[in-house]
Amino acid sequence: MNADPSLRSVKAWPFEEAAKLADRLAAAPKPEGALFQTGYGPSGLPHIGTFGEVARTTWVRRAFERLTGLPSRLIAFSDDMDGLRKVPDNVPNKAMLAEHLGRPLTAIPDPFGTHPSFGAHNNARLQAFLDTFGFDYAFASSTDYYRGGRFDAALLRMAERHEQVRGVILPTLGPDRRATYSPFLPIHPETGVVMQVPMEEVRPAEDLLVWIDPDTGRRHGTRITGGHCKAQWKADWALRWYALGVDYEMSGKDLIDSVRLSGQICQILGGTPPVGFTYELFLDDKGQKISKSKGNGLTIEEWLRYAPAESLSQFMYSTPQRAKRLFFDVIPRAVDDYLANLEKLKAQPDLTNPAFHIHNGSSNDPGSPISFAMLLNLASVVNADGPEILWGFIGRYAPGVTAESHPMLARLAEHAVAYYQDFVAPEKRHRAPSALEHAALEDLLQGLRSLPADADAETIQALLYEVGKRHAFANLRDWFSCLYQVLLGQQEGPRFGGFVALYGIPGTIGLIEAALAREASAA
After folding, report:
1. CATH code at 20?
2. Residue 284 — very low, low, confident or very high, per pLDDT cuts 50/70/90?
3. Is residue 507 part of a domain?
4. Which residues bind ATP (predicted)?
5. Across 235-289, where does the E strand assignment appear?
6. Same domain? 31 vs 100
7. In this structure, are residues 95 and 79 in contact, taking their beta carbons and an 8 Å threshold?
8. Are 485 and 431 in contact (CB under 8 A)?
9. Average pLDDT of 48-61?
10. What is the pLDDT of residues 19-46, one digit of tens each?
11. One domain for residues 45 and 107
């Protein structure tokens, strides 16, 4: 790929980040190009945040390659040598796992019985997860890197500068932890537990750590290299940056202090911290921080039940440095934002368009001639129990469009039914019209009867505006709210003219007649 310096002027955050990284490599060229990294703690399963971090890193990586013409690599690094701190809730054989607390994840039997270790099982899940979305990455295991000697030289360097590294971390700790802190975590030679103990002696020339087992009082000597110890979290992050020459890594707002401290340690070791990007964390529907322990978030499995993966990418792309609410109600908007951007991409390859980054420049997907919000309203009106009922209306609205010709629309029809059944149907409530609304609905009924059955969406929308203006609504928004609430049993919806064109004028006349009949019956 040829370099294109003009891309520095593109007002899109991936290109802005790429320019920062380009400046770094211009100052210290690397023939192999840039190394991107994203990290993963494999004590749990991959989640929606994992997707977001890898997707966002990928967009910066592609922008960097376009801008500079240089190669790049992305490693997904699993910290699988960490000690298991607690037994997860969502695994079998919890009693067995409890017997191995404190040991590295790759030294614990797999509770699922499918892999050589618990760490290997979760690593396989991570890779399968990333592969599902087509990410281009190289997997890296902390255990393999420590035991294979990839970190040996960096560990010895850290041993030589042990007190300087401690000097970075100690001011951030309480008195008790300060008394025991060391950047090194030796693996107990008998129990296999990752030990958090102070070092009695650090002898880099002898490749040796000396420490005392607090339970037995016995003195132990552990090799620094060869996977016999690992580094503490912030020191480990710095060690990785230094040993591998990581050029770019992004992280959440909750890790700002860790990034700063790890950067200081990386410099003490003689390295340069990577270019970084801080993204905001997600909030729940009440504006509270999402917590896995509270279960107040939205899982990626849930998102993918109700919407395509491209819509999740759209959500992740937009304003990553602004806190956003991540709950079920944001899904329809994300889908329709993606569809709109896909249409723009097909018309012009605008580098500020999120779809440009989601599809790496271009897409042959024909998209959908019908918005997701419209499909949701259709599913609601017909009480859809399967996508096939929607296709009768779709075929009339968009002749020649089929599931085969428009695979995205086919997926959306399935998602719309699932979303309707789980979220819309339980909350569906038709209210009676007021006297003002009753008169307006009668007027609309007459107007629709005078239109040809094949009137287009704009003609119908114009009629809706005319009817609304003829009646004494405080504003036209109240008129359209009436249509959604009285006819559809929902609080809001898409352009109503488009919905009528999709559902059909005769069907809409039937909705109005039914609503007026319900009112008369209630009276």
Report:
1. 3.40.50.620
2. confident
3. yes
4. 292
5. 248-252, 275-279, 282-283
6. yes
7. no
8. yes
9. 95
10. 999 999 999 999 999 999 999 988 777 8
11. yes
Domain check: are 458 and 318 in the same one? no
Place of tokens 């760490």: 119
The response to whether 253 counts as a known ligand-binding position is no
pLDDT over 70 (residue 520): no
Angle at the Cα of 105 (from 103 to 107), degrees rounded to 5?
65
In this structure, what DSSP letter does residue 420 have?
I
Q: Which residue among 218, 251, 281 closes a domain?
A: 281
Query: What is the reported pLDDT for 523?
Result: 41
Residue type at 263? G
Rounded to 5°, the CA angle 13-18-19 comes to: 100
What is the extent of the structural domain holding 514? Answer: 435-522
The first and second tokens of residue 170, run together, are: 């100690």
Question: How far apart, in Å, are the Cα atoms of 159 and each of 179, 198, 225, 235, 269?
Answer: 18, 13, 10, 11, 10
In the chain, the number of structural domains is: 3
117 lies in a domain? yes
Read off the pLDDT of each residue in 441-462 and give the average, rounded to a whole number. 95
Dig out the tokens for 487 from the structure. 């006819």
Same domain? 86 vs 158:
yes
Are residues 274 and 290 located together in one domain of the fold? no
Assess contact for 81 and 146: CB atoms under 8 A. Answer: yes
